[in-house]
Design the sequence.
């Protein structure tokens, strides 16, 4: 009987975990930069009564955050693009945010596309076992050498109302655009421009 209850509890936990992970919506904004598509795929966590500062206080010592929730956040560029004035070659990159306790924040573009969840968690739901998951700690030690660019983020004026759900927008500003992130009482941006 105890084994049956333990098995039932394990199944319930796995189902609850899968449902909770599915409850976090994904965002998929895109914009044309010089006529070529730039897109982002990311999970949209919510504050749920917490402040951004409370969440930031939980970051690892390297102060690098995965720029979303659940599966790895990615940016895909169909052509070379200038990101905050720095050249980013066409391709797919994982995104992270360096959020130091003091000073300017940066957006990190990395060639590492994550690790299948099933390799890091033996109880991964079947539907997510092969989904790429981001590095959760020790960014510099684990994938720092694969970094393609580290671009300073511009701090924008505070949103008119707090943003409950982390939001990445790709705003058209022909011939380029702007990647803008908002959460809580803060917002940041970087320019996206064609190379030609």
Sequence:
């Amino acid at each position: 009987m105890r084994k049956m209850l333990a098995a039932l509890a394990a199944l319930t936990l796995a189902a609850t975990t899968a449902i909770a992970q599915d409850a976090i919506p994904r965002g998929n904004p895109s914009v044309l930069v010089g006529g070529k598509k730039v897109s982002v795929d990311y999970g949209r966590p919510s504050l749920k009564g917490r402040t951004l500062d409370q969440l930031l206080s939980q970051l690892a010592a390297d102060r690098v955050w995965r720029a979303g929730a659940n599966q790895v956040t990615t940016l895909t560029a169909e052509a070379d693009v200038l990101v905050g004035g720095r050249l980013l070659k066409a391709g797919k990159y994982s995104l992270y945010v360096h959020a130091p306790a003091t000073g300017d924040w940066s957006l990190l573009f990395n060639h590492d596309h994550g690790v299948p969840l099933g390799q890091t968690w033996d109880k991964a739901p079947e539907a997510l076992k092969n989904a790429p998951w981001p590095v959760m700690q020790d960014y510099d030690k684990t994938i720092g050498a694969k970094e393609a660019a580290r671009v300073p983020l511009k701090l924008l004026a505070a949103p008119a109302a707090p943003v409950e759900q982390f939001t990445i927008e790709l705003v058209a500003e022909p011939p380029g655009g702007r990647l803008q992130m908002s959460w809580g009482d803060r917002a940041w941006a970087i320019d996206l421009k064609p190379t030609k």
